[in-house]
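Record 1 of the preview.
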Amino acid sequence: MGSMTMKLDRITTSPNRMNGQPCIPNLRLTVKRFIDLLATYPNREELLQGFPELEDEDIQQGLIYASRYLEARIYRTAIKL
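->
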């Protein structure tokens, strides 16, 4: 399934959780923090050792979410020009 059509069921937002930021459920890990961790742990195995509850699907959906968010921001900025 392509990333543009994938349902992101592992990314949730709630105004009552993590100040409404998108996060990976059950981990109290925001997508922003997750992206920061990917930069800190370039070796995925080290990341998974530090966060054993994180699953490959969480990683994939976190990256897709971030990509879609950036794409939407770029598109909105381009329209304003």
